[in-house]
Structures are given as C-alpha cells and as structure tokens.
Design brief:
- The chain is of the alpha/beta class.
- It has 8 helices and 9 strands.
- The protein folds into 2 domains: 184 residues, Rossmann fold (3-Layer(aba) Sandwich), CATH 3.40.50.300; 66 residues, no CATH class.
- A hairpin with a 7-residue loop joins strand 8 and strand 9.
- Helix 7 packs across helix 8.
- The chain starts with 17 loop residues before the first strand and ends with a helix.
Length: 268
C-alpha cells in the first residue's frame, strides 16, 4: 500500500500505539444476478492509533461500509488478520460502538429511553442508566428534551440522541458510518464541530466513513482513501493541520492542498 502525505519527504508512518491493526484482509460476496464471486476488499492493510480520529472515504461500492462491518464484528473476512487492543479477534461483536447512517431511534420511546437502550442490552440497572444519561443531557444539547419523542425533535437532535446512546455504552472505539449525510449543510457543520469537542472530552478513538472530502479533512488526523479498482487499493493522507480547528480553515492553503491531493484519488 503506497502512502501519500502533504510532505513528499515522509515515506514512513510510525505506529505509536495501534488500537486497530488489520493486515492483508480480503472479503468477497456472491453476486446474486450473475452468481459469481465478487471481490469487495482485496488484501487491505489498515491501522488506527489510540485516540486518533481517522476518516475513510471513497466511491460508492468500494467497500467502506463492508470494512466497518468487519471491524465491528457484524461480518468476518475471507482471510487476513484483525487485531483490536484487548479484544479477541473472534469476539468483536458488541465490543465496539457502531453508529450507522440512520439514527435508529425507536419512535415509541422518548429521548431518554432511547439513549439508554445500549445499557439495557448490557443488563444495566434502569435507574442507574437513566442517571448516567441525565448527567450528559446538557453536554449533548438535549437538556429539557428527555421526554420528547423522535418525531418531535430536529434531525440534528436525533443524531445527538443517537450519539448519547453510543457514548453511554462506554466503548473506547467509535465506528461512525456517514452519521451526518441526511442533515442540511448548516446542521452538518454544527454537528462536525460538536463531534470534535466530544472526541476530546470523552477520549475516544473514532473511525468515520464519509463521502464528504471537506468533512474528512476538517475532522481527521489521517484519511484512508479507498479506490474502486482491480486491486481495491488504499492511500493514506496525513492531515497536518493545527487543532482546535474552526470553519475558516477550509479557506487555508494547506486545507486546499490536501483536498487537491485527494480529488484525483477519488476520481481514478
């Protein structure tokens, strides 16, 4: 796998403290229309360090969500190694927090009840779970809305309620599959800044799948660009921009340079 970065002199990336390490991973599916075996992921190498924010971008059908499903334990590779810190590779399911594209809030449950669903699955005491959730309502911008139902709140608030549920499960690693794609641009921008605050506040390791190049650059330490070609190759982009980041950074020459580096990789 060739490594790309904003400094051409950088040839190696030192893995300081890998929390996820994937080597030579492949995955194929049977195409129902042709009944032929279709390779989705081909000899993928991937790693994340403890506390990193990494984004995964690429064209539709290149295998982004498939890779997330495999990391989470919802699916298994045909071959390759998956090493996740403190988790046995054959026992991944339920050990990582996985937030999918839709908020998946239950319409008949209140914001508070939806937020503690993960804890209920873990057989936590309901009163204790509710207390944990109530203590975080203000942090998640949901104070005063705990007794509202999903159809009574905005899309951004539903996403925050879904994040609250994800955070309450208290897993170190968060897998986010395009969580902001259904939001309008203003709400999406607000949610991105809010997510960065939560990432630092709760000391999480985040892997985000997105189609939005600006979003990936704004949020990430590194970006994996998946290419939909015969070899399903992945390029690494290092985002060497200062933190904390504000929206004005998208006008910075360094931001634009990274974007220009990514665009031809997506288009090929």
């Amino acid at each position: 796998m060739r490594t790309a970065g904003i400094h051409q002199a950088v040839f190696f990336y030192i893995i300081m403290n890998p929390i996820i390490n994937i080597k030579n991973l492949s995955k194929s599916f049977i195409d129902e229309s042709s009944n032929e075996n279709t390779m989705i992921l081909h000899h993928i190498d991937f790693h994340m360090n403890d506390g990193e924010f990494v984004s995964l971008i690429g064209p539709s059908g290149c295998g982004k969500s498939t890779l997330l499903n495999i990391i989470s334990g919802l699916d298994n590779p045909d071959n390759g190694e998956i090493n996740i810190s403190d988790i046995q590779s054959n026992n991944r399911l339920g050990k990582l927090s996985y937030m999918q594209q839709k908020d998946l809030l239950l319409p008949w449950k209140t914001v508070l009840d939806n937020s503690i669903l993960g804890l209920e699955v873990q057989n936590e005491n309901k009163r204790v779970s509710e207390q944990k959730a109530v203590e975080l309502l203000e942090t998640f911008g949901l104070s005063g809305y705990e007794n509202y139902y999903p159809n009574q709140i905005s899309g951004g608030m539903r996403q925050r309620a879904s994040f609250l549920r994800t955070i309450l499960t208290n897993k170190k690693i968060l897998l986010l599959d395009e969580p902001f794609s259904a939001l309008d641009s203003i709400t999406r921008s607000q949610m991105q800044k809010w997510l960065l605050k939560l990432w630092k506040q709760f000391n999480k390791t985040i892997l985000l799948v997105t189609h939005d190049i600006d979003e990936a650059i704004f949020l990430s330490d590194r970006i994996y660009v998946m290419q939909n070609n015969n070899f399903n190759s992945m390029q690494i982009i290092h985002v060497e921009l200062p933190r904390p980041r504000t929206r004005e950074i998208v006008l910075d020459d360094s931001f634009i340079k990274i974007k220009k580096e990514i665009l031809p990789l997506i288009e090929n």
